[in-house]
Amino acid sequence: MNQCLANCTYYSISFWDVGYTYEVRQTPAGDWIGVRSTSEFDYNP
Q1: Domain extent at residue 13
Q2: pLDDT tens digits along 7-45
Q3: Dist. CA 11–CA 33, nearest whole Å
Q4: Is 20 helix (H, G, I), strand (E, B) or coil?
Q5: Which of 3, 10, 13, 26 counts the most CB atoms within 10 A of its CB?
Q6: Which residue from 2, 8, 11 is spatially nearest to 25, judged by alpha carbons?
Q7: C-alpha distances in angstroms, 7 versus 14, 32, 42, 43, 45?
Q8: Is residue 23 part of a domain?
C-alpha cells in the first residue's frame, strides 16, 4: 500500500481558533484520495 501511495502532499492552514490539515495522494489508477483534519482551539494572546 505504501508503494502505491508513495507521493503524498500535506497542506496546513491555521487561523486564530481553527486549523485545517489536508493529506492528498494519487492512486496508480489516477484517482485522488485524501484526509481532512480540523482542529479547534482557544485563542490566547
Answers
A1: 8-40
A2: 788 899 999 899 999 999 988 888 889 999 999 988 777
A3: 14
A4: strand
A5: 26
A6: 8
A7: 24, 11, 34, 34, 37
A8: yes
Place of cell 507521493: 7
Going by DSSP bridges, is the β-strand pair 18-26/32-40 parallel, antiparallel, or unpaired?
antiparallel
C-alpha cell, 41: 482551539
Output the pLDDT for position 26. Answer: 86
Grid coordinates in use for 5? 501511495
Closest CA to 5 of 22, 28, 31: 28
Q: Residues for the chain: how many in total?
A: 45
Number of domains in the chain: 1
Report the predicted TM-score, pTM, of the whole model to 2 decimal places. Answer: 0.65
Place of cell 508503494: 3
